[in-house]
Structure formats: C-alpha cells, structure tokens
Amino acid sequence: MNRNLVLVILSLSLAFYSCGGNSEPTSVRDETPDPGKNEYVDPNANPGGIGKFKNVELTHPLDDKMVTAGESIYDLKCGSCHKLTDEKLVGPGWKGVTDRRSPEWIMNFVTNVDEMLDKDAEAKAMLEVCMVRMPNQNLKDDEARQILEFMRKNDGKN
Amino acid sequence: MKKLIIILSAIGAAYSLQGCKMKSTGAVVEGDAASKVYVAPGKYDEFYNFVSGGFSGQVSVYGLPSGRLLKVIPVFSVNPENGYGFSEESKPMLTTTSGFVPWDDEHHLALSQTNGEQDGRWLFANANNTPRVARIDLTTFKTVEILEIPNSGGNHSSPFITENTEYVIAGTRFAVPLGDKDVAINSYKENFKSTASFINVDKTTGKMNIAFQIALPGMDLDLSRAGKGPSHGWFFFSTYNTEQANTLLEVNASQKDKDFIVAVNWKKAEEYVKAGKGIKMKARHTHNTWNDETHSASSTMNEEVLVLDPNELKDMVYMIPCPKSPHGCDVDPSGEYIVGSGKLAALIPVFSFQKFTKAIADKNFEGDYHGIPVVKYEAALHGEVQKPGLGPLHTEFDGKGNAYTSFFLSSEIVKWSIKDVKVLDRVPTYYSIGHLCVPGGDTKKPWGKYVIAYNKITKDRYLPTGPELAQSAQLYDISGDKMQLILDYPTIGEPHYAQAIPASVIKDRSAKIYDINKNHHQYVTLGEKNAKVIRSGNRVDIYMTAIRSHLTPDNIEGVNVGDEVYFHVTNLEQDWDVPHGFAIKHANNAELLVMPGETVTLKFVPDRTGIYPFYCTDFCSALHQEMQGYLRVSAKGSNTPLKFSTGETTPAVATK
Fold this sequence. Notes:
The structure holds 2 protein chains of 2 kinds.
Chain A: H1 2-18, H2 64-78, H3 97-100, H4 103-111, H5 113-119, H6 121-130, H7 141-154
Chain B: H1 2-18, H2 33-37, E1 47-52, E2 59-64, E3 68-73, E4 95-96, E5 99-100, E6 106-114, E7 117-127, E8 132-137, E9 142-148, E10 167-171, E11 176-177, H3 188-191, E12 192-201, E13 208-217, E14 220-226, E15 234-240, H4 249-252, E16 258-265, H5 266-274, E17 279-291, E18 296-308, E19 317-323, E20 326-331, E21 337-342, E22 347-352, H6 353-361, E23 365-369, E24 372-375, H7 377-380, E25 381-386, E26 392-397, E27 402-407, E28 412-417, E29 422-428, E30 433-437, E31 450-455, E32 471-477, E33 484-491, E34 498-502, H8 503-506, E35 532-536, E36 539-547, E37 550-552, E38 555-560, E39 564-571, E40 580-584, E41 592-594, E42 599-604, E43 610-615, E44 628-634, E45 643-645
Parallel strand pairs in B: 13-18, 36-39, 38-44
Antiparallel strand pairs in B: 1-2, 1-34, 2-3, 4-5, 6-7, 7-8, 8-9, 9-17, 10-12, 11-12, 12-13, 14-15, 15-16, 16-19, 17-18, 20-21, 21-22, 22-25, 23-24, 26-27, 27-28, 28-29, 30-31, 31-32, 32-33, 35-36, 36-37, 38-45, 39-42, 40-41, 40-43, 43-44
C-alpha cells in the first residue's frame, strides 16, 4: 500500500516538474518579528525586570516638575485602570507600588510591557490575577521616570 | 484500490510525457507555480498591490505574490465597517458641490514619483462619475484629500502623474459645455469642450489644487500618461469620438479611420500661466482635506479655475493621428516611445518622441483639428506591431526593453520588443483582460518580475456564487523569456488600473498609532477624568473614552427623545492594533472604529424612550464582552437629570 502511494506521488511530482520553467525561489524579504514568547527565563535572573533600565538613581527631595508631569501622564494614560489608592480596578491600585517594586522594575514594566508580560515572572503572575494585558501606552524614557516620581509622591516619599 | 492507483500513476506519467503541449485552462499552470506564490504563514509579501475597486469606489490592497487581501481603503464610497462617511469627522470628505455623495466609480490609481521612480508617499485615485481626484497617505493608508474637478464629465483620463508628481492629470471623458451652460445637446460641435485639468501637488504636504485647465475641442479624452526623461514636460492623451457625435457613439464615434493622441506641452502652458494668458472663469468645486491632528475632515469651496485656450495660445497642443479609437496611451521607461492602442485596430502604433518633436520643428503637419495642428502619422511613427492580437487596450513595461499589451477581444497578454516591434510571447487570460500592471511598469524603473492581468469576465474561474461573481486578477511570472501564469486571485468591485510597489518602500514608514498627545480634536477627552456629558439646547455632547476594557462614561441618563446626541469616543490606547469599536442600539448610522489615540464621533437621535445598550464592536481583550454600557432615553420634555458615571455601584433611589 505504501509503496503504491509512493509511486503515485512520484509520477505526479514528475508531472509537475517536467515542464520546468523558471525555478527561481520566491524571495520573501521580511516576516513577523519573533517576540521570543516561549523562551525560558530564570525568574531570579532579572530582579529589576527586563528592559533597558539597570540602575535608576533616585533623587531627594522629590522633583516637583517631574511629579506634575507624571500626574498629567497618569490622568491621560493610566488613570482609566489604576486608582491611586490600594483598590484594584482593572489593574492594581498604585498605593505602595514603590515599596513592592524596585524603580528599575517599574520603569522597565511601563516601557517594555509586552516583553515583561511574556517573560518576567512577577509580571506574569500579575497578569494571572488581572486577566487583562496592560496596554503598552508608548511612554518615552523620561515619561516613565516622571511616572515613577509621581508614584513616589503618591506613596508619601520624599 | 490497486487498480485506481495504477490508473493514477499512468495518468501522472502520461501527463509528464506529454509535457507542455496541453493547452486546456488547467494545464496552463505549469511546474513550480505553487512555490512561486507560496508565502509561508508569518512571512510577508514582497510587493503591495493597490487595485482600484472600480464601482465599489474603494482601493483594495493585496500582497504579492500571495494575492492575500490586506486592506480595503475607503475612498469615494461610504464604508460602514469603519464609519467612513458615517462619522461626523469623515462626512466632509464626501461632500461635493451637489452635497454629500455616498458613492463613485473609481478607475485608475497612480503612486507618487520622484525622478520618475515610485517614492511610496501617496496614492492618487480618480472618481469617474462625480469628477474628483483623491489622495491617500501611505503612512496611514487613509484618504486624506479629495478635490472636485469642474468643467468635467466622467473624469476618466486621470489621475496619471508627472515624474516628480508636479501634476496629477484629470481629463474629461465626456465633452461638456463650460460653466454648466444650458444648451441643446446637438449643439455639441459648437458648445462642448474637453478640459484637461492640471492639478498641482505640493512637494511637502501633497496638497492639491487645480493649476490650470486646457479647454480642448470637444471629443472624449480616454487615458493619458506623462512624458518622462526626454519627454518630461509633455502629457499625452488618447482620444476617441473625434467625430464629435452626441448620440449612438458605438456607431457614430467609430467612423473615422484615425482618432488622435493629444500631446500637451505643459511647460509651455506654465509659461502662458506665468505671462497671465489664462482666463479666470467661475467654476465652483469642493476641496476636502483630512487633518491627522484634529482627526477631522473639512470641506472648502473654490470658486474659479484658470482656463487656457489652445486656439489662442500656440505651440502648446499638438495631435498625432492614431488608428481606430485608441484607449491606452502609454510611455515607455526611457520616455522616448509612446504606445497607442486602438481598441478596434489590428496593429499597435509606437510613436517616437524624437520624431514627433522633429515633425513639429519641420512643420510636417497634415492639417489641423479645430485649429490644433496635426502632425503626419508617418512622421511621428517609430513602428507598428503587426498582427499582435485583437483589441489592444493597455501597455506596461518591464525595464528590459519589452512591452506587455493587454488584448480584450482575444483575451491575452502579448509581450513584444519595443525596439524592433516584434512579438515575443503570448499567454491567455481568463477572461477578457482590461488593464494590466507590472510593479513600477509605468515608471522609469519597473520591477519586471510579474505582470498582473485584471480581467473583465470571471465566468467559471471560481466556485459559482450566483449570478454575481467575484472579479478576477491573474498573476504571471515574467522573469524568464516566457510568461507563466502562477496565480488567480479574486478582487472587489471591478478592478481597472492598479499599481504595485516593493513592500520595502512603504512598510517601515507605516504608522502604528496616533500620538494622543497630538490629538487636537475639538471634542477629545484627554484621560477619563475629563469624560463628561454636556447639554446645550437639544444637543448633547458625550465626551467618552475607551480603553481595555471599559467605556467612560458607561451609564448615561438625562437624554430625551429627539435630542441630537453626539458620542465623541477617544481611544486612550497607545498600542498597535488595539482599535475600539462603538455602536448603540437603534442608531440609523454605522459603527465607529476608533484607532489608538484617535477621536471619532457618532451622531444619534433616539426616537423612543427606553434603555439603549452600547458596546465595543472590535474584540479588544479577554473582557471585551464586558465593554458595554447603557444610555437612558426619557420622553421629550421630561426632566430626568443629566447624569453620567462609570463604576458607580450605588443603586438608584427610587423615583416616583
């Protein structure tokens, strides 16, 4: 049976190729970028999260300008889902976030949302609680820093 | 079973031995066609193929070589799928001097060019019925401008462009009296004119305006092409009905042995404009533009155009005789050869630009057409392609010295060599091909890898779907000496002309979101904190936000029957591919599709009391089904207090 099948395939494929023609392979120039979703990442490997921020210098006292800028970003891009209390809305409330997370982790999470949600153990655990992927709100580096300053203010830091 | 296998093997072997002689429809697809069009899941196509949607009024975008439909861009027709023509912001795009026009018949597309090569910035499209030209921005794939053409009827000879996109052309198919004059139809010869409108395109912004119109004697302007290289500065139009018939054109416009290619020296026309030789005439036309920061269109009225009269202004327009009702009028990549395709001719004349200009210099004329000099046919002729096929229509080029002409009557593409006008190859199309397209095949730099046939008849090519069938496009590999059919793919509307461009020119510039910080919509809601409902008289403006996965406000009360309710929905997302939709029960309107960072408005006038659910129509997250809300509508004149909220859970105090 198997041999017969092979015979059919062989002769049919012969039929296909006998006309020859131009056999230049299709040149496809691009493709979907690979997000590396299924890569294993050691949960203890990146305490500061995954992203470009390795060492965030905090300044004292708080920078009022950054606090104000951070608050207006919060109003536009974050406030729909995060309260400033500890009450969870769509995402967790922000009260105490600067005690729970390192500055690096926060800034990596808000600027590199998708990779963090795919690979960072803490972020993945949070996704299991909230069941909604945090939207990537396209924050620039300095905007992320302003958000962090506003979070520190919200937590009563100085 | 065994017998069947033997028979199958025999058939396979026989087919392989018989080789390529079989010429049935199925057998035309040969060899490695499948591997040439197979684009694996997750891989991108090599070319974008922009195809005119014909009587759908839209532009469809395919990937090549796969033939996968990527997008339909609404241009001249309303599109309930994304609210184009239904949202308050988009309605001005379809406004004309006759008010809101929801449909048109779109025929041709032209990609913008720099130095005669595709630059991937804009795509132009023509509306045939209510004469207009549209510009589509290729960073957003959105129609951003529509300009109406006055003194025109049937804007067919359009929107072909010059090699630096200096001008987009709009030539009228129907001759009409200028200035909407009320005259007897049979006074055609005396009163009717054919205008060629030269639309200036701003180098930086792309904004269009009619620089001037040339009022040619009455005839049908059919197709046109700009010169390039040595012929840059000229525009060539094919014409028919130079008999000037106003009835039964099928017979009356096929009397003469030859019609004309009209050659317009637009650099000369520019000189006349500069010297103040044009006449300003009243000719109202709308100019509609889209603004990516206010996310809104606006429509303005222009009152006049500048008209140039070729009878007064000499050396600006010449005619070249061309056999039998020419249709296509195509200029080769070098700019030296102009191919005229007589629909009823048994040959293809190829004119030489050099010879044509020499004929003018030598005053080698055979007469004039209503005052416009006609050069002698032989004096401008480079050669004739003899017995190429029946019913030549259009010609594209591969940049290797070859031309590809479509033949409607004999249903085929014929490849021929420009230099010695010899036929090299022919392939059948299924069926009755109209336009054809080589990527960049109308520019100085074609990508001569494929030719695509856009067929007028589909018949038995696909599974039957009742009397109305999909339209048919066919992809041929032209990289070798012989053309090879490798794919059929269906298209929307009736495809006329199309353009194709390497994906690499466009894809990396494609916008992913609209920056919400640059959203200057009049009714934008920058953050949920600013969501509100404002009543003034019987107008109610709802400033609403959408983000995964709730709308704010999602409980609204205090709206009465007959109120004009405007939902201004701002999508607060800033991530790629997260649009939110919006629809409300009983709205005699379409849905809204709101891109990240955008604000769009739906107008709704409730006609009865009750609770109206509204919801997000575009699946956005695991909790998309939860993205919903209620509008309470009370009787006309009632005093239900205006109230709006999200997340308020206190039960209402019972009212009376």
